[in-house]
Amino acid sequence: MQSSRPALPAVTAPERGLPVLPEIAARLAETAARTQPEPIGGGPELRAAACGYWARRGLPTGPEHVVAAPGAQPLLLALLAAAGGDVLLTRPCAAWYGPLARLAGRPSYHVPVPAECGGVPDPFAFLETVRRIRDEGGRPRVLVLSAADDPTGTVAPPEIVHEVCEAAVAERMTVISDETWRDMRHDPHGTLFFGPAEMWPDDVVVLTDLAGALTPTVWPAAVARFPAGGHGPVLRGRVVAALAAVRAEMPPPVAAAAAYALTEPDPVRARTAAVARLYGVLGAAAHERLDAAGVLSRPPQAGPYLYADLGELRTALAARAVTDSVELEAHLSTALGRTVPGGHRFGDAPDALRVRLSTPPLLGATDDLRQRALDARDPLALPEIRTALTTFGSAFSALAGG
C-alpha cells in the first residue's frame, strides 16, 4: 500500500470572518503596548483560561498539561513532529492536515469516512489500513480526527467515535482530536458531541483552534490539552521544544484576547450562540438548494461548511468540460465569484466531483452587513442574503442543466 500522494497546494488563507466582538477588541487594545514576550506554550493567564474552558466541558485540566500556539497549524505540525511514526487521516479531512504531515516528514494515509458523517474514519477501514501499514513495515502512531468536522460540517455519532478510538488505543496510537467546531453545533441541545478524551484521557490530545469559533479568523490562536498520564508529559515537552525552535510564540495582545475569550464571559457566550444559530440557518438554506439541484450533501450540523458531491451530475458536467474536482473548483469559483475549493484539497481523489462550500460569503462583504445578519431574527429575510442564496442555487441548477 502506498502512502497518500501529494495533493495540490491547499487553500490556506482564511476567509473574511465575522465582525470582531467589541469586548475582545478592547482586551487586545488594552494590551497592545505590552512588550514582555509571551512564553513559548502560553503564559499562566492563557493556560489557566484554557483549563477553565475544558473543565466546563467535563475535562478537568491542569495548566501544566496545556500548550498554546499562534494557530492550529504550527501546533499540529509540532505534534506530528513530536509523536513520530505514520499518520492516519480521514478522507476527506481539513485541507491543512496532509501538508503538515508531509512537512513533518511523516507518511500519511487517508481512510474513508462512514456514510453517515465525516471527521472520523470508518472503523473497519481504519483497522484494515493499520494492518496494511504494519504489514509493509510502517509504524502507525497517530490518528487525527474531528468529530465536529471541517470540511463536511457533520458531527460524528458518539458510537462511531467510540469504536474508532477504542481501536486506535488498542493499537497503541495517539489520537489527536480536533475540536475546533464543537461549540458551533447548529442545535447544541439536539446534537450530541462526544470528545474522546472523556473516555481515554491518557491517549488523546485535544486540539482547539480559537480563530473563527472564539476569536477573529485573522488572529491566530490555538490551544492543546495533553494527557496527564502515559506519554502525555513527554509528548508535551517535545511539542514545546519544537515550538521554541521556530519561536512559535503568541503575540501578547492576541494571547490576552484569547484568554479573555476562553473564560467565556456573557458577551462571548452570546456571540457563540448567535454565530452557531446563523451558521445553522445558512447551512440549512444552502443544503436545501443543493438538494433541489440534485447535488448530494450531508446535512450540516456544525460550523460554516458543507461538502457537496456532484457525482450524480457527471454527464451534465462533462458537457461543460468539467471532469474532475480541479475543473469543478475553477468553474464554481468563477460562477460564484469566490473560491470554492475542490475535494482534491481535502484528500479526495481528483476524479471525485466534490467541493467544500462555505456559508459566510452569503452574508455580504462588509462588517455592517455581517453584523446585521448576526442581529437579525430572520437572516433569510435580509435582501442581500436572499440574493446570495438565489445566485448560489442558480449556479448549481445551471450545472444540472436546469
TrEMBL record:
<dbReference type="InterPro" id="IPR004839">
    <property type="entry name" value="Aminotransferase_I/II_large"/>
</dbReference>
<dbReference type="Pfam" id="PF00155">
    <property type="entry name" value="Aminotran_1_2"/>
</dbReference>
<dbReference type="InterPro" id="IPR050596">
    <property type="entry name" value="AspAT/PAT-like"/>
</dbReference>
<dbReference type="InterPro" id="IPR015424">
    <property type="entry name" value="PyrdxlP-dep_Trfase"/>
</dbReference>
<protein>
    <submittedName>
        <fullName>Aminotransferase class I/II-fold pyridoxal phosphate-dependent enzyme</fullName>
    </submittedName>
</protein>
<dbReference type="GO" id="GO:0008483">
    <property type="term" value="F:transaminase activity"/>
</dbReference>
<feature type="domain" description="Aminotransferase class I/classII large">
    <location>
        <begin position="28"/>
        <end position="189"/>
    </location>
</feature>
<keyword id="KW-0808">Transferase</keyword>
<comment type="similarity">
    <text>Belongs to the class-I pyridoxal-phosphate-dependent aminotransferase family.</text>
</comment>
<keyword id="KW-0032">Aminotransferase</keyword>
<dbReference type="InterPro" id="IPR015421">
    <property type="entry name" value="PyrdxlP-dep_Trfase_major"/>
</dbReference>
<keyword id="KW-0663">Pyridoxal phosphate</keyword>
